[in-house]
Each structure stands twice: as C-alpha cells, then as structure tokens.
C-alpha cells in the first residue's frame, strides 16, 4: 500500500484501488489536489497499470468541494498551484489510455463533480449519492471543465439545471440524466466495481488501450472551450459579490458543519 | 402586468412569468409569433431581467401548432414575417444569456415543440403533456431548427422516431428520451418551477450569465445546418402533396376540433 | 418474396420486411455479410422503397457475432471482402435516405450490434434482448464504426462500459442507456413496428427523405474516426494474444454452443 496524506492506494496486479481518505470530509484543498496529481502522474508512467478504481473512505463524502478559501485568494501561488494540479488531473484522465472507474457514495460538490465526470465510468450507491454544482450560488462558475463536461454527459437542458440550480441531485436523478452508469444497492456496488475492474484487467492490454484511445478521440475534450471557461472564471472569482458569498459559505461550514444543511442563506448581507 | 394580444407578462423582480393565453388553443399564427418576438426583443434589452418562465393559460395546449394556413401561402409577406419572427425568437433563445424555463402542460406540435426545445430547461405536467412533430405527416419537414434541435436533445434514434412517426409522445416517454428535465405531478410543478426561477434570480447576475454563455457556446446551434433545413423546407412546402395535406388538416381541425382526435385520415384523396 | 441464402425479403408496397434467417444462429460470416450488402445495394437503387424493417427468424439471435474464424485469417481475401461488405452496409445505412427500423430480439454481439446501431430506430423485445461488445475480451476492438457509433448513441461513459466490460446488457439497461428507442412486450412489438413502418410509408416520400437527409447530416458519421479505428484494428487483430483468444472462443462455441454460456474462460493458456 502506498500512502499519500489524503489517499490510500492498494495495488492488486494491474489494478490500483485508490481510496480518498482525508478527514473530516474529503475537502478538495491543496493537499488533496497535490496528492491526486502526484498519484495520477506516477500512474501515467506505470506501464503495467491498466485500471484504477477511485472510491472514498468516508461514507458521507466522495470529494466534498473545492474549498472556497482558495477562491478567496485566487491569485496566491497556493491557489494557483491547486487549480493547476486539478487541471492536470482532469485533462490527463480525459486523454490517457488507463481505465478509470468511480465507485461513488456520499456528497460531491463542484470540483468533486468535475473530477467524477472526468472518470470513464461511474457507479453510485443507490439512495446514498448526492452531487451538485454550487459554483453559481457562490458567485462564480465551474472552473475545471464543468461547463463542457456536464453538457457532454447529460445534455444542455440537464446541464443548465445542474449548474444554475445548484441543488443536490440524488442517485435516481443522476441515473435518469445518465450522469452515472448505474445506481446500485450498496451491498452490490463494491462487488460490481471490483469484478468489472478485475475483468477489464484480465483482457489484452493493447486492446483495452486501443479502445480507450479511440473513444477518447471520438468524444474529445475541447481545450479552446476550457480556456474560455478559465477566462470567465478568472474575472468572476475576483468580484466582491463572489467574495461575499465565499465568506458566507465558509462561516456556514465552520459554524454548522456540512452534514446538517446544504447551504447558507445567500441573501444575508 | 404587460398585455400582448396572445401573452400576459407578469414581472416579479428579476423574473418574467410569460403566460401564453391565446384562445381557443394557442395556435402559432402571425399574432402569437409577432408577440413572442416583440416580447423576446424587449426582454433582450432589459438588463435587470435574469429569468423567464414560459407557461400556458390553457390546460390543454402549450403551443398547439404552426397553423397550416400559413404554409399554404408560404410566399406571402404575412407567412414570411411569421416564420422570420419565430426564427428570431428561437435563435435568440439559443444564444442569449437570460435563463428560460418551460412549465409545460397540454399538447404541443411542430413549431410549438421547436419553441420548447429552444428553452434552457423543460419541466412538464406528468400524464398531461403531449408533444409531437407532425410536419412529415403534413408533407414537409420541421422548419425552425427541429432537424437539429431534436437530435441534439434526444439523440438520432429518438429524433428520427419523433420526426417520422409524428404521433404524440407522453410525459413518460419525453422524460425517458431526456426531451424534458422531469415530469412532475401537477400540484408540484408550478411550485417547483417558481422556486427554481426565484433561486436562480437570487444568484449573482454575472455568474448566471457567464455560465449560460459558456454552455451555449459548448452546445452551439449550427447556422449552416439551419440554412440547409430552410432550403429543403422551401421546396417541400410548395409541393401539391403538401398542399393536399395542409387542406385535409385544416378541414379536419375546422370540423372536429383538435381536442377530439389527433389527425385527419391522410389517405383520403 | 426474394430469397438470399441468409435473408428473406418480403415486399409490401413501399416497405421491405427483411428477415435474417441463417441457421443455426445468424452468425455474421461471408454469406450473411455478402447477402446484407447485396440487399442494401439493390435497395439503394429502388426508388419506390421507403422503409425497411430488419428482424430475425431466430428467437434467440438477431445477428449473433462476426465469426472469429475470419479474424484469425484477417488478411485473406475472403475476410477482407467480408469486412468490406459490412463497411459498405453500415456507411450506406448511416447516409442514405431510406428509413430503417430494427425489430430486435435475442442476442447480438460485436458486428451484430454495429449493424443494429447503424439503423435509424431500434425497438426490442422486453426481457428477451441482449447486446454486447465482446471485441476487447477477444483481444481486439470494434471494427465497423463501434468506437464512434456507441458513444454517439449512449454517451462516453456507457460506451466505455459496453466496450470494456463486454457482458450482455438486457433490454432494461439498453432502454435506460437510450441504445434502443423502447423495449416492448413481445405481443406488442411486431405490431408496433409494422404500424410504424406502414405509417411512415404512407407519408410523402419527399418529406420523409428530406427529413432523413437533414438528420443524417446533423449527426454525421466521421470517416476520419472510422479510418483511425481501422488502423488500430488492423494491428490488434494480428497479435498472438488476439489469436489465442479467437481460438479459445472458437473451441468454446464448437464444444458448448452459444446458447448455454456466454464466453470461454479467457485465462486458460
């Protein structure tokens, strides 16, 4: 087992089982972003590795959110590095020839969802998986490809609903929108993902890689659209309205915890 | 409240609730097309306006259809103006940065469906929403972007079924095909849409607009495909076979009303 | 009725009902591929023909698979001709202006699925339809457009699951993934497809063809992606690992029949 501060990686033959284990709630901060990139970068150079399963050690969160304190000081080197790391993680996942499977359970918000969407397949715990894009409620927009990944995955209508409403969708809705491949009852989920990973890893490496490379090319991520998203994000993240909302969110989370209620009262002044 | 001949517009803060109210059955004719464009054009210049909800005052129809009498005399200035107005409405809805939500109930046909598809999100009354594309049964083809909007929304296979079969799909099918975001029980529908509109309007205007602009760009409407559709339409709408079918439909609607049966017997000579 | 070795074609007015009838299990071999292309080529020149329904005479198979013995000797003229014929069938179906409907029941694998995806609409026997892509388990990749057709139809996530897992999906899953238009109970299926075919054939030929041509253009098949797939396929199909798997599969099918168990034990050496 390899141990990163926020990740545990267990290797079985050609498969890595990567467990996000970062108390108290798998917040996407500089530590998790850096661990994810360090892991992905090393995995990329590992020619024997065929399949990676991402799951969470915390039953209540997959990746909870990209912490707003980093957006408050977006121009700091620390925040820039964090965003750069996540961009490298996501563009690598979308273009390489490893197979990635998400075993999803609990809540994920914003950057957590963008990470999930960059995986190849998504299987989720039925009744226990909740995903939202809260960026617009916080005064900015998705900044890791979300305005492109979400319409590709669920179509324009459902993407705009997720981005503009910003409320959690449950596993029934995520399955109906085809955000996830399937919602599976918890006792089945782990076994289903494990068997799928073992099965794919038992196939010819060249065949698996050839198929992945072609499907990647036929569903290509548009880097120009990604760049446009960054520009809009860079402007919005510095506005006083966004900063007011970041502070409301930070206070809310610090005072009440993320487990009780979804979001602060945005209209407090 | 602003009153157009066929529309009632109620403003609440940053939201317009636009009710299509055009007896007896919200037919898409020169009056409704002109009102829709006049409304959309004024909304476009209204910088305070963030969200528009479109609904119908008539429980049996959203927008029933583009009246065939206009296709019978397609080259008349009146018919040209009507089609131009609808093109301006639809291309504006697909490219601007206002948020539009359809609260759909009752029947919609052809141009009614093309209008609905140009909205950002679609929520429909469960068991009481019916949508069809009847153009091919009338001897022509969709002429306001339908041959492009429908495959974008529901995929090639379901689009060809809707365009070629031309029968009403119910809310279960529309939800399964992802034509609508969700079918909701009637007592919930109005409240759901209202709360969603209020919520989006409470967010940062710049964030909402930035997100919409990017998602529009990433799901762009192809004007060249739109032009190709117009060319094919212009030829078909002048054929004797189309005119025979327009007359059958007009007689049918005048004699039996649209509430009783779906369509005339096309094979009467 | 026209009789090909593996097909029965019954003409009713402007509709062809093409029954795949090739004992014992509708294997895609040189005979079936050649018959399909001969039929499609003649249909293409038949100006009266508007709609084609493809179904199977065998309740257990639609098109079972592209027989691995052809992949074992891929460079032989016989294998090349067979693949060429299927490419011509599939690219014709994707670009012409005839309407094609699949009435699907039983198992289909690989090339069978690629043929099904090239049809315009797919209606399947509920509980009795099973589709898989077994190419990767056999050491190669889809070779008739599958790495493009599948993501177009079901999205990247579901396409990768189908291509990499290679297990049969049932009619519930196929409907949820929007691979098929609908799963219908058996007593309804035949009638549903027949009525749809008769209805479309009763419409104006020019309108039907105009609609199909435009939807084809707006969902265009990318020939460059097709060429890339061929290149990867050509390399993989000659590898010893693929040949080992072809032989395992051939032995398995010869010894146990395809009706009993899905696949050989791939890890026998």
How does the SSE layout of this entry go?
The structure is a homotrimer of 269-residue chains.
Chain A: E1 2-3, E2 7-12, E3 15-20, H1 30-44, E4 51-56, H2 68-72, H3 77-95, E5 99-109, H4 111-117, E6 121-132, H5 146-165, H6 171-176, E7 182-184, H7 186-201, H8 205-218, H9 223-236, H10 240-256
Parallel strand pairs in A: 3-4, 4-5, 5-6, 6-7
Antiparallel strand pairs in A: 1-2, 2-3
Helix pairs in contact in A: 1-3, 4-5
Annotation keywords:
homotrimer, alpha/beta, 269 residues, globular, 17% strand, 10 helices
Tell me, rounded to a whole number, the average pLDDT of chain A.
94
Shape of chain A: globular
Unreliable stretches of chain A: none
Q: Biggest interface, which chains?
A: A-B, 43 and 29 residues
Number of E-state strands of chain A: 7
Task: Give the terminus-to-terminus CA distance of chain A.
Answer: 49 Å
Q: Level of helix content of chain A?
A: 40-55%
Work out the oligomeric state of the chains in this entry: homotrimer
**Helix vs. strand class of chain A:** alpha/beta
- What is the string of SSEs of chain A from the N terminus onward? EEEHEHHEHEHHEHHHH
| β-strand amount of chain A | 15-25%
Q: Please tally the helical runs of chain A, counting DSSP H or I stretches of 4 or more residues.
A: 10
Main sheet makeup of chain A: 7 strands, mixed
Order of strands across the widest beta sheet of chain A? 1-2-3-4-5-6-7
What radius of gyration of chain A results from the CA coordinates?
18 Å
């Amino acid at each position: 087992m390899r141990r990163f501060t926020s990740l545990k990686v267990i290797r079985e033959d050609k498969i890595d089982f990567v467990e996000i284990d970062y108390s108290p709630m798998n917040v996407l901060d500089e530590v998790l972003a850096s661990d994810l990139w360090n892991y992905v970068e090393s995995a990329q150079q590992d020619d024997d590795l065929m399949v990676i399963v991402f799951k969470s050690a915390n039953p209540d969160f997959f990746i909870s959110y990209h912490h707003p304190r980093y957006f408050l000081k977006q121009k700091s080197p620390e925040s820039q590095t964090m965003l750069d790391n996540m961009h490298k993680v996501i563009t690598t996942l979308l273009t390489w020839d490893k197979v990635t499977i998400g075993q999803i359970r609990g809540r994920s918000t914003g950057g957590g969802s963008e990470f999930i969407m960059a995986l190849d397949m998504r299987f989720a715990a039925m009744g226990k998986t909740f995903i939202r894009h809260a960026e617009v409620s916080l005064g900015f927009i998705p900044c890791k490809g979300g305005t492109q990944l979400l319409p590709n995955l669920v179509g324009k209508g459902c993407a705009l609903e997720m981005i503009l409403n910003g409320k959690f969708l449950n596993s029934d809705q995520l399955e109906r929108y085809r955000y996830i491949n399937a919602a599976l009852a918890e006792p089945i989920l782990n076994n289903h993902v494990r068997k799928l990973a073992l099965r794919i890893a038992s196939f010819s490496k060249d065949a698996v890689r050839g198929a992945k490379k072609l499907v990647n090319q036929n569903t290509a991520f548009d880097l120009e659209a990604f760049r446009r998203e960054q520009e809009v994000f860079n402007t919005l993240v510095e506005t006083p309205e966004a900063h007011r909302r970041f502070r409301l969110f930070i206070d809310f989370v610090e005072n009440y915890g993320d487990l009780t209620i979804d979001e602060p009262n945005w209209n407090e002044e």
